[in-house]
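Supplementary Methods S3. Input chains for the assembly prediction are listed below.
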Amino acid sequence: MNFTEILCFIVLFLVLPILISGFIRNLKARLQNRIGSPLLQPLYNLYKLLQKSETISQDASPLFRIVPALNFSIMLILAVLVPWLPFHFSLPGSEIFLVLYLFAAMRFFSIIAALDTGSPFSAFGASREATLSALTEPAIILSLVALGIAYRTSDLNEIFSFSQSHGLMQVSIWLLSGAGLFLASLVELSRMPIDDPTTHLELTMVHEAMVIENSGPNLALIELAYNLRLVVYYGLSAQCFMHALAVLFTIDHATYVLLSILAIFILAFLTAAIESFAVKLAWRNNPEFIAYALTMSLLASLAAIFQSAFASLSLGNLGAFL
Amino acid sequence: MIPVYKKLAINELANTIRADLEIEGNRVGLVTSIDGNQLITLMLNTRSGNTVLYQAELASDSYTSLTTTIPQLHWHERAIHDLFGLIPLGHPRLKPAIINESCETIFAPLRETAKPISDKLLATRDFEYLHISGEPIFELPVGPVHAGIIEPGHFMLSCLGEDVLNLEVRLGYLHRGIEKRITEIPWRKARFVAEAAASDTACANALAHALAIESLLAVEPSFRSQGLRTLALEIERLAMHIGDIAGMAYDLGYLVIAANFSRLRGTALRLAELLSGSRFLRGYICPGGVVHDPDRLLSEIQRTTKNLRENLKPALDFFISNPAVYERLRNTGKLSSSLASEFGMVGVVARACNIAYDCRQSFAQGSYPKNHPTIALQQEGDALARTLVRIAEINSSLDLIDTILSDLPSGTIGSNLPVDLPANAIGIGIVEAFRGELIHLVITDKAGSIKRYAIKDPSFNNWTGLAIAMRNNVIADFPICNKSFALSYSGHDL
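Predicted structure tokens for the full assembly:
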């Protein structure tokens, strides 16, 4: 990893979270014939929130104040560990399971903090978040594990690095994993059709209801962590799709980087389109949507298992196997 | 129209109302009092268009509750309790309906001033929610300040997990004393207060007021003004129904369609502006006729209607042909037909439960029932049925606007009114507002000034329907349920 790559990573790491959120918001407005807020509106919002003072429920324990900072720190670590951009730090610890459990830890802490305030709204949000994450987690695990099986390693950086040789079978694994991850991330990030991030209806929300008691700088940290989580998830799915593309065509590294960023924007565009044209699902029908994500990741895992089984069965020992 | 007036003894009242309700087409319009010394009940016959007003004198401050045998009166009795300090003995859930207990002093504002307020009233002023006990029960209070820009109302949702076991609606935050104020001002100014009862229903309220006053004065407005009034009423229905569909699309998360309908609502409001000079038709209808003849603008109205129709069609088709919309709305907030009639639902809510009641057909007024469109009926009583009724009414209102515009009689728009109202007279105006049956009742005293002015907004009946429909739905469906009823807070609280 050379100096330019590190510089690129830092710039994208700082710019993309804000830009992608602003892009989705603005695009949604455009699709509704409104002019929409400027691209940097999320940044202005953060600035505004940082200026504000905090209102904290009297029933809240110190945990409630710590959690946003804690989650934000975990998210920072994750953003470095997870290869969501086509640059890879050769850091130890980008293990699939460490990453998965760090995501789970964030969720756990946000749920605990939401219950901590004693507000019925955030408790509802927390209970919904717990239900949804229990349903989506298998999809995310299987998507990543499928790649792990295919490349016989549990190190994400190794899976996503370029040194690997690619066979045609891998295209389907990458595509299915990418699709599974993207669909699951829509649920994880509380976006349509599971949760409507623009609504004011406190009774139907998931993520927004969970953080309803947070305000001021605390809320700013939550928003920032959310924006970062959004690009990490989208970047990871985009990388999956990019790898499928790289198997089919030879792409030089600079183009690859540009296309990766473009892919994240395409996923953001898809999100905005879904949020404008889709009807939010009834709460009881949510598992049906999550089932799509799960099916994709299951198929990816099956393909990966199938492929590695065949790899071990070369023509020579096929006879012995029979 | 002028109702048939009958005097009754208070102990006969319940039996008489019950016997009347047995007859097909009869329904209770309004139960209230004049000054706390009597109960008056307005019975409507939706088949013949006849109305009967029963008056029963009260000997004391309490009477045997009618609710125990006629459940739909439960809300009326709560309102009477608030406004007159009369206690219905045996009422199963007596608590404030209109005047919030946050008012520090007890006042029964419409009660005869000389009469002292009984001590028993003091004891019944606290608002007590229906308490559902049990460990897994979760009580979720919502409001009265909401996250969106809507009117204030408080909802207590008792939930078992995500399922709502009971919804209790608590209103009264918008009580402005409209009924009282109308009795204090000169009757010629009263129309401005009457139409402020619910500002999104300004036209229907002004029309009901005008009809009530005209029936007192025995004045018949000119044919042209009747046509213009009907036009105004249909434009209001059109605009508000489009707005409600937009709100529904927004709650479904169907943002593109929501944005489109919001824009089209603006076009419909432009029709109102062309007709009356006010986008919400305020101050347009007055006793005796209308205040302004759009004359040369009529062709512009015709053009805009045509334009609106062309733009609405693809948006409505897009909305209603989406299977996800059906999936989401079907069986959400279901209200059975039997409960709907038992609790006296009106308007869109009733018609979605297959109750064929539309004041435009039942009570002659303006261009009705000559030009009355077929009643839009649905069987299911769920949010989908209510949305489909609204869409059918959008289309029929557009047709009706076209019909009236092509065939508007010529002539004057106003008529001269006498200076004084007749003494000891009763007049009522019944109008199908966009939410449903709207009744204005005016009673004059022996000096010919207004002694009691009662307004019965359609929401007054339908709030109970929302509470019933919410039961056993998931809590996340509450916004959709609420939006499908699209009830007024200010019209209820007055």
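The first strand of chain B starts at residue 4 and ends at 8. The domain at 4-119 of chain B is CATH 3.30.460.80 (Beta Polymerase; domain 2).
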